[in-house]
Write a structure and sequence with these properties.
Blueprint (H helix, E strand, L loop, with lengths): L3 E6 L5 E2 L14 E5 L1 H7 L2 H6 L28 E3 L1 H7 L3 E6 L10 H15 L3 E5 L3 H12 L3 E7 L4 H8 L4 E5 L3 H14 L3 E2 L5 H6 L2 H10 L7 E5 L4 H15 L9 E7 L4 H8 L24 H11 L3 E4 L1 H15 L5 H15 L8 E6 L24 H12 L1
Parallel strand pairs: 5-13, 6-7, 6-9, 7-8, 10-11, 10-13, 11-12
Antiparallel strand pairs: 1-2, 1-3, 4-5
The structure holds pyridoxal-5'-phosphate and zinc ion.
Length: 411
């Protein structure tokens, strides 16, 4: 009943059966899901999509499941907002925010990938789900895993923001805080995944998990009125989301849901962890791993699994990349909040500040249609703003005290 043919090595093209595997035995290339596009063309029409509920499963034929969706039935179809105030600030005309800070149960785009990964984990018969996370993935695996009855292990760097740890703990997974950075966590989890029969969503079932990110691209096309934008700015951690938004555009073009794809893809990173944007600016696709040091912890992957592919998508599309300092990230968060009323986490600050830079450099044109992907909610990383917000005015509960203070406020 499904629409997937096989898993296929991205490097040598060797095909594998649909199993919880992720790496080619011959060349060690990553495996990717291969679809039956001819069959999908017939089933996934505009009319079929428009009849369905407003969640990420409205494009289910292009997602790697065999049966019905089982997880994340209220995730996705987040707003695409015409950001006129921010556009004015930047001196451009057609700016949109893809707002993944809302709608998702755990308030980040990771609910897209987890909906697909856990549905697939059910199909494979796993009873335990796990992940190596920079924060948001742990929230999503913990929450959706709880709802769908899995045993849950989440592995995080011990230095994560306290509020991010609580936001996993509340769903009662086993939270394992590793003394190391994300890349250390990921290395350890790869070893654990080889030994225990657990579904590590971003390791052994990564080929399926990663496909969930495409739904952000599908939604952008549908919400723009079945066309692609001129530019998309995407924050990069492993680089997966950026490659999958591009893949989504190509797939909708291939099955005839959108006419042409002339979109430039732009990668946004923090200066304290910018292996992808550094490679793009240097004109190479060789990623040099770094040791992350940034407040944008959700993007702090020093050795990005899809970095090479992200660099090549940016190159193929004619886009570019930039990185921004911690101070620029905070300014980006505040600017988005006071222009558009959207409170994003540090990753959103990275994306907004990067967009500003790209516009100033002329890489993004004034009349272009540009979509900026804001991927997580600011309530998750409130610590980042401490010491960078306006003061609070403390008063006595009487009018005199208020009016004394008002003099100071409006002076
Ligand atoms: C995970 C994450 C990303 C980027 O993810 P990729 O690994 O590049 O796919 C972007 N923003 C937020 C908030 C995230 O949690
Ligand atoms: Zn191979």
């Amino acid at each position: 009943m499904g629409y997937i043919n096989s898993l296929k090595c991205r490097e040598c093209g060797r095909e594998y059966p649909i199993d919880p595997i992720y790496v080619c035995e011959f060349c060690f290339g990553p495996l990717e899901v291969a679809y039956d596009y001819e069959k999908i063309k017939k089933a996934l029409t505009k009319e079929a999509i428009l009849r369905r509920e407003n969640n990420l499963w409205r494009y289910k034929e292009l997602l790697p499941i065999d049966g019905d969706p089982q997880v994340g039935l209220t995730s996705g179809f987040t707003p695409l907002i015409k950001a006129n105030n921010l556009a004015k600030e930047f001196g451009v005309e057609n700016l949109y925010i893809k707002d993944d800070t809302v709608v998702h149960p755990t308030l980040s785009f990771k609910d897209r990938v987890v909906a697909v990964a856990l549905t697939k984990a059910k199909e494979f018969g796993f009873d335990t789900v796990a992940c190596a996370s920079t924060g948001n993935l742990a929230h999503s695996v913990s929450a959706h895993g709880a709802k769908s009855g899995f045993r849950r292990f989440v592995f995080i760097p011990a230095t994560l923001e306290p509020s991010k740890i609580v936001a996993s703990l509340v769903y009662e997974p086993s939270v394992v805080a590793v003394d190391g950075n994300y890349d250390d966590v990921n290395r350890l989890c790869t070893e654990i995944a080889n030994k225990y029969r657990w579904a590590f969503v971003n390791i052994n079932i990564r080929p399926f998990y990663a496909e969930g990110s495409k739904t952000q691209g599908f939604e952008i096309i549908e919400q723009l009125g079945w066309r692609t934008p001129d530019n998309v700015v995407v924050p990069c951690a492993s680089g997966s989301l950026l490659t999958k938004v591009w893949k989504a555009f190509k797939e909708f073009n291939y099955i005839g849901l959108v006419n042409e794809v002339n979109t430039k893809m732009f990668a946004a990173q923090a200066a304290g962890c910018s292996p992808i944007s550094t490679a793009i600016k240097a004109g190479t696709d060789i990623i040099k791993p770094v040791k992350p040091d940034t407040i944008a912890k959700s993007l702090a992957i020093g050795n990005p699994a899809d970095g090479y592919y992200a660099v090549n998508v940016v190159k193929e599309s004619g886009g570019w990349a930039e990185s921004v300092t911690d101070l620029e990230i905070i300014e980006g968060i505040k600017l988005l909040a006071k222009t558009e009323g959207i409170f994003s986490e540090t990753a959103g600050g990275v994306t907004v500040a990067t967009t500003k830079k790209l516009i100033e450099q002329g890489k993004i044109g004034k009349k272009d249609v540009t979509v900026v992907c804001i991927t997580g909610n600011g309530l998750k990383t409130q610590e980042a703003l401490s010491g960078h917000t306006k003061q609070v005015y403390y008063i006595k509960p009487n009018l005199v005290s208020f009016e004394d203070t008002l003099q100071n406020i409006i002076r």
